[in-house]
Amino acid sequence: MDDAMFKRRLAWKAFQHVAAYNSAVFEWFWKQTKSGEFVSSFNVFLERSSSLRYGQNPHQKAAFYLDKSLSDVKLGGIATALQHHEKEISGNNVLDADAAWNCASKLSTPTCVLVKHTNPCGIASRDNLVDAYRLALEIVLGWSTSSVVLLLYL
């Protein structure tokens, strides 16, 4: 990287930092007014939380971004979920996990959702996650394989 490119990159990072700070100050002042009015514009700052294996297709690059203000699991959805598999997920896996989350997050009992191409193909709620997983798997075994398994215990 030449010197000019290095300076441009540093300038970009500095302005990115200042923009995030200005947005936070704007939001703080707006909340102090308690006017209930809609703001004319707002900025959303997302932080890259991980690189994805690929996007919708294997030749596409992809990344997963997180809104750090949504630290609560119920607000952050899959963005704040814990992944137990070490392999990087793909963009399609993110869509499947989001579909599973949308199915299970409304339930109050331990739930397992099996999803393929954003379609739930097995869902079960039981007193514990092991039984929920076994029942959801029984539903699916006859006709499909699942790409995403979401286990939810609130």
TrEMBL record:
InterPro entries: AICAR_Tfase_dup_dom_sf (IPR024051), Cytidine_deaminase-like (IPR016193), PurH-like (IPR002695)
Pfam families (alphabetical): AICARFT_IMPCHas
Superkingdom, natural source: Eukaryota
One BP annotation, GO: 'de novo' IMP biosynthetic process
Gene3D superfamilies: 3.40.140.20
Any one GO molecular function term: IMP cyclohydrolase activity
GO cellular component terms listed in the entry, alphabetical order: cytosol
Official protein name in the record: IMP cyclohydrolase
